[in-house]
Design brief:
The chain folds into two domains: about 100 residues, Rna Polymerase Sigma Factor, Chain: A, CATH 1.10.1740; about 90 residues, Orthogonal Bundle (Arc Repressor Mutant, subunit A), CATH 1.10.10.10. Helices cover about 80% and strands about 0% of the residues. Helix 1 crosses helix 2, helix 2 crosses helix 5 and helix 8 packs antiparallel against helix 9. It is elongated. One of its GO terms (biological process) is DNA-templated transcription initiation. Belongs to the sigma-70 factor family. ECF subfamily. One of its GO terms (molecular function) is DNA binding.
């Protein structure tokens, strides 16, 4: 029965011209069938890329939503391929965002600072630490406190938000701002 429905959908797609939009119920039915027939494969494809089942399900859902938004038959003539293309692109976006977050994490920044090799590392690290302390002193109290609790205290953003009675978003903003100031101070010292 499922194969018959797929054939009917394929025939309906082939009947469409490039200029004839599909109506919402037809689009919804096509996407529903795709979900039934290919969701397991799609989620497996995304898990392999994202290394996270939860993220894979999120991206799959977003891909189905985007597929539902298509109006032209030319855009849906190869629905399964288009679904996997959409999902693959969304997965790449997620991976890039994850890499940016990891690259800008305070823990990584200080790990690099404290593990530089060389005989003069201790003197350089002490000098850099003093520059960072000076930079942090120039920040507003809440910003400095959030940064210190997160980086040196090891508290999560959520814990700090509760403790400081602020939103998670504000704490992330404070930590990112402090990181930017510290990085800029070190970059200026290196350039000068």
């Amino acid at each position: 029965m499922q194969a018959t429905a797929s054939i009917a959908i394929s025939e309906r797609i082939q009947e469409q011209t490039d200029e004839t939009p599909l109506d919402a119920p037809e689009r919804a039915e096509m996407v529903r069938r795709l979900f039934q027939e290919h969701n397991r494969a799609l989620v497996g494809f995304l898990v392999a890329r994202l290394q996270s089942e939860a993220e894979a399900h999120d991206v799959a859902q977003e891909a189905y939503v985007r597929l539902l938004q298509l109006e032209q038959a030319s855009a849906v003539s190869f629905l399964r391929a288009h679904l996997f293309t959409i999902a693959g692109n969304l997965a790449i976006d997620r991976i890039r965002k994850r890499q940016v977050r990891e690259r800008n994490s305070p823990q990584q920044f200080f790990e690099e600072l404290l593990t530089r090799p060389g005989p003069d590392r201790t003197a350089m690290a002490q000098e850099e630490l003093e520059m960072i302390k000076d930079a942090l002193r120039e920040l507003p109290e809440k910003c400095r406190r959030a940064f210190m609790l997160h980086v040196f205290g090891g508290h999560s953003v959520q814990e700090i938000a509760v403790q400081m009675q602020l939103t998670d978003r504000m704490i992330r903003h404070y930590v990112a701002r402090a990181m930017a100031v510290c990085r800029q101070r070190l970059d200026d010292a290196e350039a000068g």
